[in-house]
Amino acid sequence: MQNGLESHIPNFYQLTPAERREIIIDRYALTVAEQALLNNAGGLQLEQAEQMIENMVGLYRLPLGLATNFIINGRELLVPMVIEEPSVVAGASLAAKLARAGGGFIAAIDAPVMLGQIQVVDTPDPWTARVDLLAHRAELLALADEVDPILQQLGGGARDLQAYILETAAGPMLIAQLHYDVRDAMGANAVNTACERLAPRIAELTGGQVYLRILSNLADRRLARARVRIPESALAFGDFSGADVARGIELAGAFAAADPYRAATHNKGIMNGVDAVVLATGNDWRAIEAGAHAYAAREGQYTSLSTWRRDGTGQLAGTLELPLALGTIGGATRVHPTAQLALKILGVQRAAELAAIVVSVGLAQNLAALRALATEGIQRGHMRLHARARQQVSD
Ligand code: MEV
Description:
This protein is α+β, with helices and mostly antiparallel strands. It has two domains: 2-110 and 223-393, 3-hydroxy-3-methylglutaryl-coenzyme A Reductase, Chain A, domain 2; 113-216, Hydroxymethylglutaryl-CoA reductase, class I/II, NAD/NADP-binding domain (Alpha-Beta Plaits), CATH 3.30.70. 47% of the residues lie in helices and 22% in strands. A four-stranded antiparallel sheet has the order 3-8-10-9. A four-stranded antiparallel sheet has the order 5-6-4-7. Strand 9 (306-310) and strand 10 form a beta hairpin. Helix 4 (88-100) crosses helix 14 and helix 10 packs across helix 14. The site of (R)-mevalonate has 9 residues, from helix 10 and helix 14.
């Protein structure tokens, strides 16, 4: 629980931004510098931006909102979301409120093992090269461990080395696949460095030539899973019975599972929630997007990342599974002051804790979209929110 307080704050959306900020300042005992981040007076500075990218000429701002009502693994949470699209924060908050009726979201995260690839070509025989490579697995893992002694002290480091032959348009290739536990980092730096360190020895062992040495964004050893169960009765609203809403959501889930055209939009709705938290915490949302969509196509046909079923006991059960290569240390997360504030609001230090929140928000966002689509339609809710946004701008 964040400061022992509930994440359900009645009428939070009806307050002015200044009133909402007061609540947050109080709730998280924000320092003067942290308050300035919310107040237009602080945030990323030009000097910091200059260290981040090349040819920097200025800064680009986006709204930071807080989704309310979340209970994730028993913790009450307000969730920072950075997004330009209306109704995403409201949708997440609404779905989180519905989920409270079933105790909230439960999430579990795999060990933070990332994959690196080393591409070997022009071996005398790739199958023999593969055997020679794997015969030296222990030596290669020890070599990979040398690149980051601190990571190793923290319990991370090389976990496995696998190898496979690819028949490609440019001929056969041997691909070595390094499995590397990156602990609380996103992992690109550690894995890329380790792959580059292994390359000369792999070339020697295989008699081939090494070209690419790079992390894979299909981080399918680092999956995050969330589930939620909501009593159907809690889903009723307006003229819609809970059973009707639950059936509509189940049908929407089945549609997305069977049809790539629908699955793309269904998953886009999930990523509305995922990306907004990923961005708020300074993480690499392109990596998360690439991983999610590659995972959705893992069986040859692009499909839904989530499932929705009525479980026969009057409950609607939803699940979401996707790779989440997230860090709480390094990169923009360390440099960007507002990303640090987002982590403070979430009260997380470990990457796995952050991933549990992100996958739960993705599932909530999906629920909000399907609930609207299967009942009153998305435009009606959007129009309401647009009207409110216009009203606030003119207030
Ligand atoms: C819009 O940003 C997202 C939705 O299209 C998602 C969906 O269709 O499931 C509403």
